[in-house]
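Support request from a user on the community tier.

User writes: "When I paste my structure tokens into the form, the page sometimes reloads and wipes my input. The last time it worked, I copied everything first. Here is what I submitted, just in case something in the input itself triggers the reload:"
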């Protein structure tokens, strides 16, 4: 499975962000809490040098809470301000407001010493597709204010969204994909639904997911589908097809349907709260 990770409009978006970053006090980066590292774009670190940084672990309702805590500590040790959120329900939004003030405390203090009072903090919101950037902005602002263009990465003019007298948000004019060579990153993004299923081999994806779950979350597949986790991953997929009546004509097992069922159950949280990657421990 090969992907086009860096289409042309992303290059244009990056140039626009390089211009906009001069106006910014704080960069707020959304990541998917199930794959906090794979859903980051390494370009953002270069773009946001010398700016206050915040990471929002989004979709924490779907991820392993133990790993949410571990990832929070990991990013804090890297110098980020971190908040766990669910942008759909609004959980964690109040903490984001207070954390913005905390992240920009030095800037606010500098302004005060220069006699500049009440200038709002200007924050840029960034994130790859499907991490919930627009949902976050809409929920955070309390109304549907993040306009979307007809094409991804194409927005005319800057979209400043004034939240209150203290904070203005700039929605990024384009969405950046991560640029990487490691296919495991692509696989994890495929598992959470950031890549169109039409270009994926879902059976292959499901076998990778089975291998991960039996190693890191043993018992989940047995509990959900009644399969024997001691079997190899192909046999487990066959057992899922068998036990969920996924069949083609002639009573042949429909492994494609079973694979889709498994991946859908993971993405929706029906398998439980699962995180696909764990942070390296930083001493």
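"...and here is what came back when it finally went through:"
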């Amino acid at each position: 499975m090969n992907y086009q990770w860096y289409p042309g409009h992303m290059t244009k978006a990056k140039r626009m962000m390089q211009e906009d970053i001069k106006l910014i006090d704080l960069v707020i980066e959304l990541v998917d809490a199930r794959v906090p590292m794979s859903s980051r774009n390494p370009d953002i670190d270069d773009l946001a040098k010398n700016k206050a940084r915040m990471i929002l672990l989004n979709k924490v309702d779907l991820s392993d809470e133990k790993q949410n805590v571990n990832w929070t500590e990991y990013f804090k040790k890297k110098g980020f301000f971190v908040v766990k959120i669910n942008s759909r329900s609004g959980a964690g939004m109040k903490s984001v407001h207070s954390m913005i003030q905390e992240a920009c405390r030095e800037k606010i203090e500098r302004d005060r010493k220069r006699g500049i009072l009440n200038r709002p903090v200007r924050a840029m919101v960034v994130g790859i597709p499907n991490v919930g950037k627009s949902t976050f902005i809409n929920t955070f602002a309390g109304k549907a204010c993040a306009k979307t263009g007809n094409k991804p990465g194409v927005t005319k003019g800057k979209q400043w969204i004034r939240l209150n007298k203290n904070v203005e948000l700039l929605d990024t004019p384009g969405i950046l994909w991560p640029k990487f060579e490691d296919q495991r990153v692509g696989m994890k993004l495929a598992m959470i639904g950031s890549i169109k299923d039409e270009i994926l081999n879902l059976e292959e994806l499901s076998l990778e997911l089975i291998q991960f779950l039996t190693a890191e979350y043993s018992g989940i597949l047995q509990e959900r589908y009644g399969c024997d986790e001691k079997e190899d991953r192909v046999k487990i997929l066959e057992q899922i097809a068998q036990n969920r009546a996924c069949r083609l004509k002639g009573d042949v097992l429909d492994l494609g349907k079973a694979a889709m069922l498994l991946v859908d159950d993971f993405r929706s949280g029906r398998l439980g709260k699962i995180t696909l990657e764990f942070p390296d421990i930083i001493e």
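Agent notes: The reload is a front-end session timeout and is unrelated to the input. The chain has a mean pLDDT of 87. The first strand starts at residue 26 and ends at 32. Escalated to web team.
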